[in-house]
Amino acid sequence: MSEGDAIPEFSKTKAGEGHDVSLTNLSAFASGPGIRSGAEVAAIIAVAVVIIGGIELALRLFNVPHYIMPGPSAIAYALYDEFPLIAPHLGYTLVELVSGFSIGAIIGLVMAAVITQFPFAEKIVAPYILILVTTPMLALVPLLILRFGFGYTPRIIAVALAAGPMVMINAATGFRRVDSAKIALARSYGASTLQIFWRIRAPMALPMILVGLMIGAIFGLLTAVGAEMVGGGFGLGNRLTTYSSMIQMPQFFAVVLILSTLGILIYVLFFLIGKKWASWEA
Q: What is the pLDDT of residues 133-172, one digit of tens each?
């Protein structure tokens, strides 16, 4: 291809110019919450203090036993005291999540690329994807345990099956939402299908891809914990089952707090990635 026939570069809007804040569009990540003023930060902290302090005070005033509902102070102490015992189980859960999510995300991205380039493949694959999306993966965990035992394998498979379709659906949506005028212009310059995919479709679909990865990671975390609760002797889900059966509710809620923190970290991670690499609107 001669220099005069080179594929033109398409301009992108600058970060922060978009106004759509829907969680189904990465502009919510790309534009971000912005730099908060001191008054906003103080208001957020004040609300948190009021809520936590109010719960603590109400539980103490009504003498609610810890085995029914522990106070925030009891949960904080349990988290500090039990964390050395919980930490290894946190590591097991992270191994399952990262392994299963990586497998599911790769397969989901490949499938999204295939079905958007070959519509006939979508007609074949779509019914099976629909089954995976609508079937609770936890329902398959006992079957996977019977086949693969109580180790990592059934949990990783369950996480991959939960994350993969979410990544595929969002990525495919992003690949299809590319402006047809850009594709037509690229074809007029002699661009091949592969060049159009890598230089136009993939970059323009990046916001939706990151949203799919975020949703897939959250679904994977929920599936990993559920699978640990169904069977096996390790993982945060196993700790939830153990603490609830022993009516150790401060420790139970300490594990719930850890899981909530993991979910927030997943959101923050993809927010930062989106802000760095996709801070524009397609």
A: 888 888 888 899 988 988 899 999 999 999 999 999 999 9
Which residues neighbour 7 within 8 Å (Cβ) at sequence distance 6 or greater? 186, 189, 191, 195, 199
pTM for the predicted model, two decimal places: 0.80
Cα gap 268→250, rounded to integer Å:
27
Q: SS3 of 22, please?
A: coil
Region for residue 235 given its phi and psi (left: phi exceeds 0; alpha: psi -120 to 50; beta: otherwise):
left
Alpha-carbon span 172 to 44, nearest angstrom: 38
As a whole number of angstroms, the distance between CA 236 and CA 231 comes to 12
* Percentages (nearest 5) of helix, strand, coil residues in the chain: 75, 0, 25
Q: What DSSP character marks residue 251?
A: H
CA–CA gap between residue 183 and residue 43 (Å, rounded): 48
Structure tokens, 173: 């949506």
